[in-house]
Amino acid sequence: MELFELIDNITEYIIDPIILLLFGLGFLYFLWGIAKFIWNADSEVARKEGADHMIWGIVGMFIMVAAFGIISLIKNSIGV
């Protein structure tokens, strides 16, 4: 039982906050892309750059949600 408690504690206090932090950074990157897209409406290059930031922000958030889901699936599968 101690091993399962250790895995649960590592997940709860280390991995989950890291995933949440990285999700937050992806969200901020997405918002920065929106701001850049709106502020530079007259420049095609800057708008494309803003759109790229938005896309990569969404990709980053998706990866973090997927990582959280995979970790939860593994924990539930082994009974933690």
Strand content bin: under 5%
Distance between the termini: 9 Å
Instruction: Provide the residue-averaged pLDDT.
Output: 94
Q: How many strand elements? A: 0
Secondary-structure map:
Layout: H1 2-39, H2 44-78
Helix pairs in contact: 1-2
Describe the structure.
It is a single chain. With 80 residues, the chain is mostly helical. It has helices spanning 2-39, 44-78. The chain is rod-shaped and about 60 Å long.
Features:
mainly alpha; 80 residues; single chain
Put the structure in a nutshell.
91% of the residues lie in helices and 0% in strands. The chain is built from 2 helices and no strands.
